[in-house]
Amino acid sequence: MSSQNFRNLHQGPGLLLLPNAWDAASARLIESLGAKAIATTSAGLAWSNGYPDGNALPEDQLVAAIREIARVIRVPLTVDIEAGYSDDPDLVAGLVARILDVGVVGINIEDGAGSADLLCKKIAAIRDRGTQSGCDLFINTRTDVYLRGIASGQAAIEEVIRRSCRYRAAGCDGLFVPGLIETDAMAMISRAIAPMPLNIMAVRNLPAMDTLQQSGVRRLSAGSSIAQAALGHTSQLVSGFLAGTTSEMFDVSADYGEVNRLFATNASRVRP
Question: pTM higher than 0.85, yes or no?
Fold first, then answer.
């Protein structure tokens, strides 16, 4: 799937809705339900491999997991690489090069608790590596101003805009602001960063989709919420089973044959 197709999805019509997968099975299921593109959740991916979220997943396991996801889907895939798993921009760019080799068209990279200066250097190194290899990578930069409570009110809006200007100059293509829920702030930020698309994360009591779009949002990510819901549901079912109840497992169970058919043609499939 071309990177241009993924870029075009940010231009509408409507919001680009990105469900976040955590393994090949969840990604293939998401694709079968009509998603136009798929993102990974760093938390879900880390948990599914037995690691905590927060730059703890070994790079080899990340790349292996992404390879298996890319093998079973045909829609554009963008990968959350957290802060890049290193403070060395060259090493981060090297990791991105490995991910590009398996067919990824986009990444998320975050500032987190780190400095904007460091993230700018990482973005620039990634962009340089992509240009050298002829890959048109969509770099979606996440800033945690709201998520970490670095600032509030008008000061938060101004800090997001200040960082976004620096990240855009370094070579990013989109801005991800998790924790942003106020429509007035969305509108101010989206106008300031245009034509870069504004990406936010789904949270409880988020405004309606049409309101988000009117406020300048172009991309909505599920984040780790679907993975958390799946784990929460699993917890309920297992608790019931261990208590001697089996009926609940079959109430919303996916049909075995339907699930198996999702992968019947993918056993030896290699993503071009």
Answer: yes
Q: Which two tokens stand for residue 122?
A: 């990482």
Nearest to 56 by CA among 65, 45, 67: 45
Which two tokens mark 241?
């089973």
pLDDT tens profile 57-82: 999 999 999 999 999 999 999 999 99
Cα–chain center distance at 147: 15
Q: State how far the Cα of 221 lies from the Cα of 31, in Å rounded to an integer.
A: 15
Check pLDDT > 50 for residue 270: no
The CATH architecture that domain 3-263 belongs to is: Alpha-Beta Barrel (3.20)
Residue-range domain boundaries for the chain: 3-263
Q: What is the spatial distance between Cα 117 and Cα 137, in angstroms, rounded to a whole number?
A: 21
Tokens for 193, please give them: 């960063």
Q: Specify whether the CB–CB gap between 81 and 107 falls below 8 A.
A: yes
C-alpha–C-alpha distance, residues 231 and 202, integer Å = 18
C-beta separation of 145 from 116 below 8 A? no
